[in-house]
Amino acid sequence: MKFIPLLIITATILGIGSCSDEELVPETDSEFQVPIITPSGSENYLNNGSDYIFDQAQLHTFELKIPESALLELDEDPAAEEYVEGMLIFEGDTISPVGVRYKGSIGAWVGCLSGGDLLNPSGTKTCTKLSMKVKINWEGRDEKFFKLKKLQFHSMNSDPSQMHERLGYWLFREMGVPAPRSVHAKLNINGQYVGLFALTEQIDNRFIKENYEDDKGNLYKEVWPLGTNGIPLSDQEYMNALKTNEDDNPSIELIKNLGQSIADAEISATQEIVERFLDMDEIMAYAVVDRTIRHDDGPFHWYCSEDNCSNHNYYWYEEPSEEKLHLIAWDLDNAFANIINDSNPITPIADPWGQTSNNCQPFQYLWVRQWSASCDKLTATWVSYADIYQQKKLQLLNGPMSDASVNQLLDTWQNQIKEATKEASELYDDSVPVDEWESKVIGLKSQLQHARNK
Predict the structure, then answer these.
(1) Residues 253-266: pLDDT tens digits?
(2) Cis peptide before 97, with omega less than 30 degrees from 0?
(3) End-to-end CA distance of the chain, in Å?
(4) Do residues 30 and 103 make contact, with C-beta atoms less than 8 angstroms apart?
């Protein structure tokens, strides 16, 4: 095994200059030690904001260097989602060490792990690319990467158009709903081009600081104010869902009071309650975008097991000074797929917006059991704002999702990633072929046209 020259390691530890990736890890090395690099202070990643990373006009390339033994460890059990040490190289700057792992939920692993149980993902990596998370604040590191603490590279394996995430989040943001930024990015690992990814912004306290005036509140992931029994969740369930303030024993009264107030009120009185706790323009814009793009794997899809129904792929943020809750979209790779027909057998929601099935009892639809979202008193209250919903829908269809706006945008993005898509298709059998990708983008435009007409 070759080694990194002691002089180079010593210089980087002391912050004497910045070394190129070739100097740090020769391409011929199969194994190496991850060095500690202290930045000099002049690096671009220290002195510029995240707008550079999420610039819609750029296709950035990122390089990860991971010791072969550590990469093998990741590949042997991706679903473990355990970090290993590596290096991130971007436009001449090297950040080392960083934490690197694969990431995903059940859907992200389908067809990409050797284990046979889809509901309990296991086994070795079988796809060329899997979604990855890079932790910049690794082992107590203070420096951030363009003000970011984490990078998320989403594989888009279930989206051959390679446009769902980027377009979906863009539509939410254009409608005034805070949502992650997402762009395409090329990713190399140990000198080998792996493919094209959706680089999607992490929803964390930094995201909160950039999107809300009061950033001291609680961020929750996938916890609804009411269960399917109409009863608010337990205090512990709210605490377990915290993504900020976890260690501060924070008050959970705001989200808890919303649930309890809705549960205690007659349906005729719930509008007054939601207007007290929510920005109704924002929440109705959220509902319109979600339903128009058929984000059927989001908060309005209640999946049911034998004894429980729950929804997922969303966050809540409590803004303390305003005493308001904000719903934030997440995981849009399966959006758009069910606009014309139910092409995904797992995600489709059976009911149109505002309708219910099976007397509000769980029922089988295609491959899964589900529960009608409008049986939830909070959602049912939102449905009652028909005039605002219609107003927001017209704003979406005549504005950001109009034919002129969205097709031009997709054409621009398509040109931006065409060569990267072609390169991946020439290297890997499991990458989307260029002709199929182009066909899927045309199909996405047809779906959008269908949504506008319907």
Answers:
(1) 999 999 999 999 99
(2) yes
(3) 63
(4) no
Positive or negative: CA dihedral 268, 269, 272, 277: negative
Question: With 80 as the cut, is the pLDDT of residue 8 above it?
Answer: no
Q: What is the mean pLDDT of residues 263-275?
A: 96
Contact 229, 209 (CB under 8 A): no
Rounded mean pLDDT, 349-357: 97
- Structural contact between residues 97 and 85, judged by C-beta atoms closer than 8 angstroms: yes
Cα–Cα distance for residue pair 300/311, rounded to 1 Å: 7
List C-alpha distances in Å: 153 to 37, 63, 103, 114, 182. 23, 12, 9, 22, 10
For 11-61, write each residue's pLDDT tens digit: 332 232 344 444 454 444 568 899 999 999 999 999 999 999 999 999 999
Q: CB burial class (10 A; 0-12, 13-18, 19+) of residue 305?
A: exposed
SS3 of 230-294: CCCCCHHHHHHCECCCCCCCCCCHHHHHHHHHHHHCCHHHHHHHHHHHECHHHHHHHHHHHHHCC
H/E stretch holding 98 reads strand 93-102
Describe the crossing of helices 164-174 and 280-292 by its angle, rounded to 10 degrees.
150
Q: pLDDT tens digits, residue range 354-393?
A: 999 999 999 999 999 999 999 999 999 999 999 999 999 9
CA distance 333 to 298: 11
User: What is the model's pLDDT at position 19?
Assistant: 44
How far are the Cα atoms of 29, 196, 433 from residue 134, in angstroms, in the given order? 22, 16, 28
CA distance 115 to 111: 9
Q: Which residues contact 281 (CB under 8 A, 6 or more apart)?
A: 176, 388, 392
How many angstroms separate the CA atoms of 448 and 402, rounded?
9
d(CA 200, CA 330): 10
- pLDDT score of 7: 28
Least confident of 46-60, 93-107, 260-274: 93-107
Single-letter code of the amino acid located at 221 = K
Say if CB 11 and CB 40 are below 8 A apart: no
Phi, psi of 164 (to 5 degrees): -60, -55
The full set of domain ranges for the chain reads 6-201, 213-398, 403-453
Mean predicted confidence (pLDDT) in 108-116: 85
Strand partners, 289: none
Which amino acid is residue 11, in one-letter code? A
For strand 192-200 and strand 219-221, is the pairing parallel, antiparallel, or unpaired?
unpaired
Distance CA 29, CA 52 (A): 32
